[in-house]
Design goal:
The chain is an alpha+beta fold and about 100 residues long. It is built from five helices and six strands, in the order E-E-E-H-H-E-E-H-H-E-H. Strand 1 and strand 2 form a beta hairpin.
Length: about 100
């Protein structure tokens, strides 16, 4: 997760999923991001495209584990990540999100 502030708006961005939430506070931004994640998983699960979509973002499946892309991969393949890293003061954190593998495959 990358959290940053710009023009009075707080953002929570998960580059490994290319999902962003925003709000008037960092807490609102993260809650917005959680809603985006829920809708993303719901939509791609219903369409049966979640695994394909994750692979597009650099994810791999190893046994029963989903492996996110490396920061190097993200910086090389996602222009938005590069822009955030180059143009904003930000804080970076790791957050685990659990979902049943059956939902992905």
């Amino acid at each position: 997760m990358i959290d940053f502030h710009e023009d009075g708006i707080f953002y929570s961005y998960a580059p490994a999923l290319d999902l962003m939430g925003y709000g008037k506070t960092q807490e609102e931004a993260f809650k917005s991001w959680q809603l985006m994640l829920h809708e993303y998983v719901k939509y791609t699960t219903n369409k049966k495209t979640l695994a394909q979509d994750l692979e597009k973002y650099g994810w791999s499946v190893s046994g029963s584990h989903l492996n996110p892309p490396s920061l190097t991969w993200l910086l090389q393949n996602n222009q938005q990540v590069t822009e955030v890293y180059d143009k904003h003061n930000f804080s970076k954190s790791s957050r685990q999100v659990k979902m049943p593998l059956a939902e992905v495959c």
